[in-house]
């Protein structure tokens, strides 16, 4: 193989770009060799702020890109992802909090009866509806000291004809109410259409019954109830007694329990005045009624009256002290079912 030599004139531009040449330093005999110039640069001279066709940022090759530039894009993506996750998590927590806050209201507005009452078999399978038959409620006043105002609803059949009562129910009232409460609530009409005679009285000092100074002892209050029942021909009554009327009904129950076919205390006062032995000697069937929200008198009377040997319990969920007004449907169900069990 033969090698051919090509002579290139020293004045050739190509030679000037490829070979170094000496230059003399001004005012000196020394010279230095300049660096050869490159005709082609394999790396593109890209300026800061420019982008390539792929859309990536351009950086001058002699100036390395800051270390935080490219990872910064990934960091923003991660932050967006985490932010979305936090938003979803916040919504879930908010929904959980709302359910937690609304749950008591949902439970309070529920019309489901007490599970305890269902286990005791006190609630009918279908609620007793108020009859479309007009029930006549008459009023009267018994003479004595003091005079006693009362309301009466006589039992009727499905055709509206008066019939003999299955039982006689005497209704007392709480401190903020009168006998009119039982008429307005529909309790007296409900009792009458189910075959029961309903007698609601205004206790002395309430409604249309004047007060009396003669009622300062338990015995005087027991005598007043006895006079009321005897005057109206009531024998073996079912006594219904809410709240304040416990001053009358509890002493009557302890002393004259044999005269009662049934007892329905609704968070009454005065239950702490008697011993467990006194309660255990009472055989009167009793329906203990109280509201689940009545944590004071309702819970206290419930605890004491549980000592009665022959008792049932009707706990009205979502109801306060006057539970029969908060939950009249469930109260009427339990009332009728309990009366139907009495012989």
Structural description of this entry:
The N and C termini lie far apart (137 Å). An 8-stranded mixed beta sheet has the order 3-4-6-5-7-8-9-10, with helices on both faces. Strand 3 and strand 4 (148-153) form a beta hairpin. It is an alpha/beta fold and 343 residues long. The chain contains 11 helices and 10 strands. 36% of the residues lie in helices and 16% in strands. The chain is elongated. Helix 6 (218-231) packs across helix 7 (246-256). The relative contact order is 0.10. The protein folds into 2 domains: 77-109; 115-341, Alpha/Beta hydrolase fold, catalytic domain (Rossmann fold, 3-Layer(aba) Sandwich).
Q: What spatial order of strands do you see in the largest sheet? A: 3-4-6-5-7-8-9-10
Fraction of helical residues = 25-40%
CATH class of the largest domain reads Alpha Beta
Low-confidence stretches: 17-25, 31-51, 104-127
Estimate what percentage of residues fall within beta strands: 15-25%
Label the structural class.
alpha/beta
What is the makeup of the main sheet? 8 strands, mixed
What number of domains? 2
Q: Helix tally?
A: 11
Number of strands: 10
What form results from the Cα inertia axes? elongated
Terminus-to-terminus distance: 137 Å
The CATH topology of the largest domain is Rossmann fold
CATH homologous superfamily classification of the largest domain: Alpha/Beta hydrolase fold, catalytic domain
């Amino acid at each position: 193989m033969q090698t051919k030599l090509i002579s290139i004139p020293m004045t050739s531009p190509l030679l000037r770009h490829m070979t170094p040449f000496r230059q003399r330093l001004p005012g000196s005999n020394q010279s230095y060799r300049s660096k050869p110039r490159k005709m082609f640069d394999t790396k593109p001279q890209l300026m800061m702020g420019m982008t390539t066709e792929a859309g990536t940022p351009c950086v001058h090759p002699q100036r390395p890109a800051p270390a935080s530039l490219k990872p910064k894009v990934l960091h923003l993506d991660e932050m967006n992802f985490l932010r979305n996750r936090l938003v979803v998590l916040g919504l879930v927590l908010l929904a959980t909090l709302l359910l937690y806050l609304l749950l008591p209201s949902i439970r309070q507005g529920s019309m489901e009866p007490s599970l305890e009452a269902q286990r005791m078999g006190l609630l009918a399978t279908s609620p007793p509806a108020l009859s479309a038959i007009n029930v006549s409620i008459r009023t009267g006043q018994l003479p004595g000291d003091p005079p006693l105002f009362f309301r009466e609803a006589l039992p009727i059949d499905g055709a509206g004809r008066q019939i003999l009562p299955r039982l006689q129910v005497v209704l007392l009232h709480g401190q903020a109410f009168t006998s009119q409460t039982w008429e307005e609530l529909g309790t007296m009409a409900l009792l009458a259409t189910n075959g029961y005679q309903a007698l609601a009285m205004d206790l002395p000092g309430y409604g249309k019954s004047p007060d009396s100074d003669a009622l300062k002892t338990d015995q005087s209050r027991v005598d007043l109830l006895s006079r009321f029942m005897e005057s109206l021909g009531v024998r073996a009554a079912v006594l219904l007694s809410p709240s304040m009327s416990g001053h009358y009904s509890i002493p009557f129950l302890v002393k004259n329990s044999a005269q009662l076919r049934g007892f329905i205390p609704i968070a009454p006062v005065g239950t702490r005045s008697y011993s467990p032995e006194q309660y255990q000697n009472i055989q009167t069937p009793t329906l203990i009624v109280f509201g689940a929200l009545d944590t004071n008198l309702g819970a206290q009377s419930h605890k004491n009256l549980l000592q009665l040997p022959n008792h049932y319990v009707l706990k009205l969920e979502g109801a306060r002290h006057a539970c029969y007004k908060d939950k009249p449907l469930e109260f009427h169900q339990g009332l009728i079912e309990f009366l139907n069990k009495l012989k």
